């Protein structure tokens, strides 16, 4: 009886361990390549991979971590982005899904800067 119970507990623990979300993790990295060198199996309560990219006048810093979904979604909803700086948070829920948060933010900054540059150029020619 004890052997069967022990076997059941070991199998149950193995199944729960296999379900842990895996995220890329880093703190204050300026390169997504460097940031994607370390992964972490999230704790049982963490169900989201969170990527935070902060940029100020062309200097960018990226952080990736395991998180709970509600704080991540709240941070993402409060993201701000201006031409000279900002803070962008993205959340995802599959293994290693936060691989390219940095590239997405660079594209967003480019899309913000391009219309501003066109606007300045149009006023400059008048």
From TrEMBL:
Keywords: Cell membrane, Glycoprotein, Membrane, Signal. Transmembrane segments: none annotated. Residues 1-20 form the signal peptide. SMART domains: LU. Its main location: membrane. GO terms for cellular component: plasma membrane. InterPro entries: Ly-6/neurotoxin-like_GPI-ap, LY6_UPA_recep-like, Snake_toxin-like_sf, Toxin/TOLIP. It is found in: Cell membrane. It holds the Pfam family Toxin_TOLIP. The keyword Repeat does not apply. Residues 21-112 form the UPAR/Ly6 domain. The keyword Transmembrane does not apply. This is UPAR/Ly6 domain-containing protein. It comes from Synaphobranchus kaupii.
């Amino acid at each position: 009886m004890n052997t069967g119970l022990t076997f059941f507990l070991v199998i149950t623990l193995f199944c729960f361990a296999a379900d842990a979300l895996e995220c890329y993790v880093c703190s204050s990295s300026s390169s997504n390549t460097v940031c994607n060198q370390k992964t972490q199996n999230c704790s049982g309560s963490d169900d989201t991979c969170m990527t935070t990219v902060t940029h100020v006048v062309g200097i960018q810093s990226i952080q990736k971590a395991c998180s709970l979904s509600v704080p991540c979604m709240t941070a993402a909803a409060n993201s701000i982005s201006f031409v000279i700086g900002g803070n962008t948070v993205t959340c995802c829920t599959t293994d290693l899904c936060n691989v390219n948060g940095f590239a997405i933010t660079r594209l967003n900054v480019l899309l913000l800067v391009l219309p501003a540059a066109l606007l300045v150029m149009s006023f400059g020619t008048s």
